Amino acid sequence: MYLPKSFQETRAEVLHALIRDYPFATVVMHGADGLVANHLPFELAGTALLQGHVARGNELAKADGMQVLAMFQAANGYVSPNWYPSKHETGREVPTWNYAVVHVHGRLRVIEDKTWLRGLLEKLTDRHEATQAAPWHVGDAPEDHLEKMLKLIVGVEIAIERIEGKFKLSQNHPDANRAGVIEGLGERAGVRDAELIELMQQAEERRDG
């Protein structure tokens, strides 16, 4: 991807944090009929593996050994030039879009092991049910139903060969403009604007730290 140095994020802990906070990825590979994209949540296992599962009918279930690209996207949003103090001084500003993404390149492995697959489902479920008042657990379902469901899916694992992050959060603007963007996002209060503000503030803290 196009990656100007000012937006490049290389710290592993920051990249891994985005994957954990936004685990729903777009996975792209080159299939028999050209590029194919699928969408699924992943669990980051340690620092070197992404683990998930797909239906047996999914192209990924037949892609053992294929090179893939998994893209994770955090909050994003339109940035108005009206939010920049410099715009009101010179008029020399234009709209843009702020966002943060992580790209993972690696080779896919398809896993048929039912014990491994059930363990992954338990990890995924326990993680995403943790905020519920009465969390649902895999073991709550009847065993015969689980056995039936497990036969319909396969595990997929991506060994991370290369990881890159692009955090485009107004770093190429002076402090006053970045503050103006944060203020503008706060006033707009769109669906993802609070999350985008948090990303920008975290980037400021990392820079100052």
UniProtKB/TrEMBL annotation:
Any one Pfam family match given in the protein's UniProt record, by short name: FMN_bind_2
Domain of life: Bacteria
Name recorded for this polypeptide: FMN-binding negative transcriptional regulator
Source taxonomy: Bacteria, Pseudomonadati, Pseudomonadota, Gammaproteobacteria, Lysobacterales
Organism: Dyella acidiphila
